[in-house]
Amino acid sequence: MKYKLLTIVTTIGLFFTLNGFAQDFWEVLNTPAGYGVNSLAINSDEDIFVGFATPSGGGVFHKLNNGNSWDTSLFFSNNLIGEIYIDKSDNIFAATSDAYYSDDNGDNWSLIFPSHIMGVNSIYRSSFNSTFIGIWGGIYKSDSINSNWVQVLPLENIESVNAIIEETNTGLLYAGTTNYINGGGVYRSVDGGDTWENIGLINHYVSSLALNSSGDLFAGVRGGNSCPPPSGVFKLPHDQAEWINVKDQELVTSMVINSKDEIYIGCSNLDLYIGGVRRSVDNGQTWEMINTGMGNQNIGELVLDSEGYLYVVANSSTPLFKSNRSTEIPILDGSITYANTNATPLSNIHVKLMQNDSIIQDTITDATGYFYFTDINNGIYTIDITPTKPWGGATASDVLLYRKHIVNISNLSGIYLASGDVNGSGDLTAVDVLLIKKRIAHLIDTFPTGDWLFNNQPVMINGTNVTYNFSGICYGDANRSYVPQ
Ligand SMILES: [Ca+2]
Ligand SMILES: [Ca+2]
Fold it and tell me: Is pLDDT above 60 for 19?
């Protein structure tokens, strides 16, 4: 077992050596050569659907979860698919100037929305099962999926509805629009989408909208028709009326907020702006650029899947990127307990996550012995413990157990056997027993091995949550009588 583990560690170590020690945030997702990607959506099985374009048309292709190849059979000739949306029931909507719909994972498609010359830019299916389609010129609503369309927000045909979202616990709807003359901004509906009112950011090119768990509304802005043009991220705090510019100097094209209320924005690199993705973990107060593995890209769309992975559509010869790890999952946690029957929690223990002899993160266990690391790159780690608790528990009863093991009267195993090897020789002998007796008699006050032993092994992180519980014991406490405080 130890030999196998060593082999894995050696192999991975070589991999890291070849690729450098720091792992990029993004990796390229290959797409069929010659296709530009316009839009991406992911269903509940984590299958990826992409709207693509070629010089002669476009269509939809998909790649199944864990699949290696793209299925390009869902093709619409002569149509450039500009928008793909998947609702909570895995109905897929794909839009050109028309909108199509599939309820069988893309095998069959039907036209559900009549042609509008300027094209469909946003689709949303609400928690109350109405379907909304945002176009150049307003919003249409259907109380089913595909029929009886009513225009609920009429706009000029130079005003594009780019985003429609819902605060699902209240049913409030928001729409973000761009008007290239004047107007535009953000609209709200309090009556299920039947009527809409403008709530600000007029003359801002609103590309994207997202809500955090407190009901704060964030709008991504990619310019505007005042001078200097507005751009960046604007925040409308819950129950307030004034928008706050929380990030400027960015052409924001897309935005998502994950279940940890982290805000991610996709940015364009046009007009000498720097493209790529930014993140704020403090409701927009501060931002960091997360472009490693991707560089200065012109981001068109940012999508979050149900496991917290991010996908990016870029206007580039490498049009698809995926985050190397989930943005949401607390990746490594666990509890450390004393190796006794009651599993006494080892609180206030300094726990270090180590890789290649470097401390990656460190923390202190809480009253229940629980520790927690998040935001960890894939790889193999060791957990290093520095206990500050006093040594204890060794008595004549323990010495007897070690002696019985040595003469084969009764055998110890695992951490209980290892607790007797106080000189670190790799086995339990009379030399160890003599040291334990001396320490019990206060003739010595340390062991060559130190005071504490933990049975944790290296841990492999591979993008998913790992819970790793393990135990500690004091050297010399074979009968696990010690109850650490
Ligand atoms: Ca020994
Ligand atoms: Ca004991």
Answer: no
Q: Where are the domains of the chain?
A: 24-323, 332-474
Contact predicate 236/251, CB 8 Å: no
24-323 and 332-474: same fold?
Answer: no
**Is pLDDT above 60 for 318?**
yes
Round to whole Å and give the CA distance between 383 and 64. Answer: 36
Ligand 2 centre distance from Cα of residue 93 (Å): 67
Ligand nearest to the CA of 430: 1
> Which pLDDT belongs to residue 197?
98
Structure-derived torsion over alpha carbons of residues 146, 151, 155, 156, reported in degrees to the nearest 10: 80
Distance 1 CA to ligand 2 centre (A): 29
**Above pLDDT 70, what percent of the chain?**
94
For the domain spanning 332-474, the CATH number is: 2.60.40.10
Return mean pLDDT, the chain.
90
367 CA from centroid of ligand 2 (Å): 23
Residue 41 carries which side chain, given as an amino acid letter?
A
User: Residue 192 contacts by C-beta under 8 Å, 6 or more apart in sequence?
Assistant: 126, 128, 130, 171, 173
What would the DSSP string read from start to end of 109-177?
-EEEE---TT-EEEEEE-TTS-EEEEEBTEEEEESSSSS--EEEEE--TTEEEEEEEEETTTTEEEEEE
Name residues with Cβ closer than 5 Å to ligand 2, which is an ion.
393, 398, 477, 479, 481
The model's pTM is 0.69
Distance 457 CA to ligand 2 centre (A): 24
Considering only the top CATH level, what class is 24-323?
A: mainly beta
For residue 371, the CA-to-ligand 2 centroid distance in Å is 27
- Give the long-range contacts of residues 72-77, CB within 8 A, separation 24 or more: 72/32, 74/102, 74/106, 74/107, 74/109, 76/100, 76/109
Read off the DSSP letter of residue 423: T
Q: Ligand 1 mean position to 430 CA, how many Å?
A: 8
Residue 86 contacts residue 105 (beta carbons within 8 Å): no
